[in-house]
Specification:
By secondary structure, this protein is of the alpha/beta class. The chain has nine helices and six strands, in the order βαβαβααβααββααα. It has a four-stranded parallel sheet with strand order 2-1-3-4, with helices on both faces. Strands 5-6 form a two-stranded antiparallel ribbon.
Length: 234
């Protein structure tokens, strides 16, 4: 079967522990083991779980609707959505297209079959989705509490600094290496290069993202947006 793969890393990466490279390996291993062919991969980096904030998911659904694939696979069901309502909405939309939803996690596979004769599948899937949503809410609560405590002690406590900055002695300061990469991004963007072309150029020239070794279009887009906003505010 032809399938497309959808990967996602949220804005709060410390809650995921499940990077794009790991997710890509998981869906490829699943496809090989099950005799499916991945025709395209849609990686979503640094976005929230809100549907309107996920352009790669929109592209994946459009590809399904256009008949470019017969199903969509995610490394784990919570990569599709960690909100139960959104999860069920997306699964129903894919099924309405006549396509299938797959998870690379074997224990989730049985609950992604639309079988009116066995409503327990839907029940178990929704219970697991609710548990995932609850777990994320509890992790986020603990994280917010920890940040507030750290901030009360005078430390920088609100997540990883944006690209181009670093925390030194509890204060944000410019990261010269990343500032050079930002300047190069802006130069390439002004030259009319596409996001993917900018990614390729940055990697070839030795500029590295804050995490990992590869640049992704969504990361470059976010960096450029922040840079433009900072310039406009100056």
């Amino acid at each position: 079967m032809r399938v497309i793969a959808y990967l996602r890393v949220s804005t709060e990466k410390q809650l995921d522990g499940y990077g794009l490279d790991v997710q890509r390996d998981a869906v490829r291993a699943w496809a090989r083991a099950n005799g499916h062919r991945i025709v395209e991969v849609f990686p979503e980096e640094g976005v929230s779980g809100k549907l309107e904030d996920r352009p790669e998911l929109a592209k994946a659904l459009r590809a399904l609707k256009d008949g470019q694939a017969d199903g969509i696979v995610v490394p784990k069901l919570d990569r599709l959505a960690r909100d139960l309502v959104v999860q069920e909405q997306l699964i129903a939309e894919v099924w309405r297209m006549g396509a299938a939803v797959f998870s690379a996690v074997a224990s989730e596979a049985d609950y992604l079959v639309d079988d009116p004769a066995d409503p327990s599948r839907k029940l178990i899937r929704q219970v697991l989705g609710a548990v995932s949503e609850y777990e994320r809410a509890m992790i986020a609560l603990r994280l917010r509490t920890g940040r507030a405590h750290k901030a009360s002690k005078g430390g920088y406590a609100y997540g990883a600094p944006a690209f181009g900055q670093k925390a030194v002695d509890k204060e944000l300061t410019a990261d010269e290496r990343e500032q050079d990469a930002l300047a190069r991004m802006i130069e390439l963007d002004n030259d009319g290069k596409s996001l993917r072309e900018i990614c390729t150029a940055l990697e070839e020239e030795g500029h590295r993202p804050k995490r990992g070794d590869r640049w992704h279009p969504t990361t470059v887009s976010r960096c450029l947006t922040r840079a433009r906003a900072a310039t406009a505010a100056a």
